[in-house]
């Protein structure tokens, strides 16, 4: 651990906190449907879209109608993407002459990108044509991110409104977020990446002469445009198999730092937007404080573990930190920070191979996802997932101190608590169930590269990443098989939409309630005690649920290395 490494981490946190309010203000304008400076240029485009699609943006929807429209839209996206990938060989913009993607991989990929997971059981440059990268994948990077933010807006309205049965209009939310936020920022971001050396071309490849005199063919394509939205929308799917460890996706330390900021910036801004929406910005700051405590703690452990190196290396007399699987141009600190950021959000982009991290260093990214994708989390998904924990926390607090369970002026009753528990329970049920199945079934056991606890970690990480809609791979697992493509596809769908529907039901229930003025019987939800309770509830639920799995995987792996035992 070095001063330079800690300076990088502290600078990242400081800049992120400074951006929270400005970004939150812009998001709040979209939440309210107010005009922005971009309306002068893009307003006609928005209105034209509504006319062509027959959408009335002022027509409010109840939670059921909002949910049905959202589900049908995403289901249509799955069918469209599957069809495009299966017919890729017949379509234009395929300079490499790549064949159609097989059935199980098309199924997995279609669900993956619609669910904002972007799990990739393939090498992008050897599997996807330029048309598939742009039309099947990049478009979903925009739409899945916009869907997440729209759903967060719907829950915000549930808390902010009183005596109303509606939570907004899905199509209006989706359109405004895409048109006035994701698209313009991504254009500027992509231009920055192009200026930094990231390719943006429809050419399939370039032939170059190396310094050794050999001739090499380099794969090219529309990389910068996909890279921008993959980070901003916490999608994570890389144009290249090496993802953000590839110099064409992430050329230098500056692009690496900007990419990390872009993963977190919208999720951070949404905490401020929530506080403003409920009329008390301190509520948003309290949520952000709890998120940052969990994030900084995770970053510290990961950085310490990677800087210390593995116990096995110490047995062999090898000093220094663990650089296996990391890019020299980034080093240990930037790699550890990136790993924590990408798994604290639902991004899944990687600039180092997590399979090569130390056992404890690799455990933190795994645990970040198992907490429910709430440590900043994905765009929209992080804040609405965190608010589910807040509902449980205020209910538990009310039971402990005998005060009324209220949160931001809404009385929390049995219906909201049951729905929150139902949504939160999806992750452990699916993760642990499918991990257990794959750990005993022959097709599942054929996947891991390693034996023993590290091989178990590879399986556990894959299903955790899928259900948490993260998409990062531990590596070492051969996932391009019918078994894993099929089960991971199901896991991604359940992890995304079986959380969303109960959450929208909570939004509808809260919107119909009256606002309850704070009184001496109300539990305070803005101070240090509340922040500590939130952190404690999240850690206790995650720890009690996943500690046995972690003990069989990374913890057992670490203890075995202390005894110089390998598998």
Succession of helices and strands:
HHHHHHHEEHHHHHHHEEHHHHH
Mean pLDDT: 92
Q: Separation of termini?
A: 29 Å
* Beta-strand content estimate: under 5%
Q: Which residues form runs of ≥5 with pLDDT under 50?
A: none
Helices and strands in order, then pairings?
Layout: H1 3-32, H2 39-53, H3 63-86, H4 103-114, H5 124-127, H6 130-160, H7 170-195, E1 205-209, E2 215-219, H8 223-232, H9 253-277, H10 281-308, H11 311-315, H12 331-344, H13 359-370, H14 381-401, E3 406-407, E4 410-411, H15 414-440, H16 442-445, H17 452-467, H18 482-511, H19 528-562
Antiparallel strand pairs: 1-2, 3-4
Helix pairs in contact: 1-7, 1-9, 1-12, 2-7, 3-4, 3-6, 3-18, 4-18, 6-7, 6-8, 6-18, 7-8, 9-10, 9-12, 10-12, 10-13, 10-19, 12-13, 13-17, 13-19, 14-15, 14-19, 15-17, 15-18, 17-18, 17-19
Describe this structure in words.
This protein has a domain of 241 residues. Helix 3 runs antiparallel to helix 18. The chain is globular. The mean pLDDT is 92. With 567 residues, it is an all-alpha fold. Helices cover 65% and strands 2% of the residues.
Write a compact overview of the structure shown:
With about 575 residues, this protein is mostly helical.
Name some characteristics of this structure:
4 strands, single chain, 19 helices, 567 residues, mainly alpha, two-stranded antiparallel ribbon
């Amino acid at each position: 651990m070095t001063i330079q490494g800690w300076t990088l981490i502290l600078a990242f946190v400081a800049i992120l906190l400074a951006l929270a309010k400005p970004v939150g203000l812009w998001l709040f304008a979209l939440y309210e449907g107010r005009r922005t400076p971009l309306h002068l240029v893009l307003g006609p485009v928005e209105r034209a879209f509504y006319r062509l699609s027959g959408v009335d943006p002022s027509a409010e929807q109840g939670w059921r109608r909002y949910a049905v429209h959202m589900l049908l839209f995403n289901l249509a996206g799955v069918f469209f993407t599957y069809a495009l990938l299966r017919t890729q060989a017949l379509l234009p913009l395929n300079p490499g002459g790549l064949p159609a993607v097989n059935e199980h991989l098309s199924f997995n990929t279609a669900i993956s990108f619609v669910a904002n997971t972007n799990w990739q059981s393939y090498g992008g440059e050897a599997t996807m044509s330029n048309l598939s990268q742009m039309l099947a994948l990049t478009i979903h990077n925009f739409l899945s991110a916009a869907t997440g933010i729209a759903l967060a807006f719907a829950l915000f309205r549930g808390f902010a409104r009183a005596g109303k049965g509606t939570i907004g209009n899905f199509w209006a939310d989706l359109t405004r977020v895409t048109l006035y936020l994701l698209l313009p920022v991504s254009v500027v971001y992509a231009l920055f990446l192009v200026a930094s050396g990231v390719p943006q071309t429809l050419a399939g490849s370039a032939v170059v002469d190396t310094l050794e005199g050999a001739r090499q063919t380099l794969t090219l394509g529309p990389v910068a445009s996909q890279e921008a939205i993959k980070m901003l929308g916490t999608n994570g799917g890389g144009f290249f198999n090496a993802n953000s460890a590839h110099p064409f996706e992430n050329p230098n330390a500056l692009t690496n730092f900007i990419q990390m900021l872009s993963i977190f910036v919208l999720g951070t801004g949404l905490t401020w937007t929530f506080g403003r929406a409920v009329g008390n910005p301190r509520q948003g700051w309290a949520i952000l404080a709890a998120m940052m405590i969990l994030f900084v703690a995770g970053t510290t452990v990961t950085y310490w573990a990677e800087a210390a190196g593995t116990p096995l290396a110490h047995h062999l007399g090898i000093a220094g930190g663990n650089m296996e699987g990391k890019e020299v141009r980034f080093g240990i600190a930037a790699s550890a920070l990136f790993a924590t950021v990408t798994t604290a959000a639902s991004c899944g982009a990687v600039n180092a191979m997590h399979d090569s991290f130390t056992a404890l260093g690799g455990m933190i990214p795994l645990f970040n996802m198992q907490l429910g994708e709430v440590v900043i989390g994905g765009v929209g998904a992080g804040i609405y997932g965190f608010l589910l924990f807040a509902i449980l926390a205020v209910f538990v607090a009310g039971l402990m101190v005998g005060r009324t369970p209220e949160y931001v002026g809404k009385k929390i009753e049995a219906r909201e608590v049951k729905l929150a528990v139902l949504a939160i329970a999806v992750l452990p049920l699916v993760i642990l169930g499918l991990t257990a199945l794959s750990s005993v079934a022959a097709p599942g056991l054929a996947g891991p590269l390693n034996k023993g606890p590290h091989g178990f970690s590879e399986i556990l990480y894959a299903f955790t990443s899928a259900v948490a809609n993260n998409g990062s791979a531990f590596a070492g697992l051969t996932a391009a098989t019918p078994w894993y493509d099929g089960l991971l596809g199901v896991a991604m769908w359940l992890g995304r939409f079986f959380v969303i529907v109960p959450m929208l039901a909570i939004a509808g229930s809260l919107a119909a309630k009256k606002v309850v003025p704070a009184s001496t019987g109300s539990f305070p939800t803005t101070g240090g005690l509340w922040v500590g309770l939130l952190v404690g509830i999240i850690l206790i639920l995650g720890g009690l649920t996943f500690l046995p799995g972690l003990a069989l995987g990374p913890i057992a792996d670490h203890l075995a290395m202390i005894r110089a035992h390998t598998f």
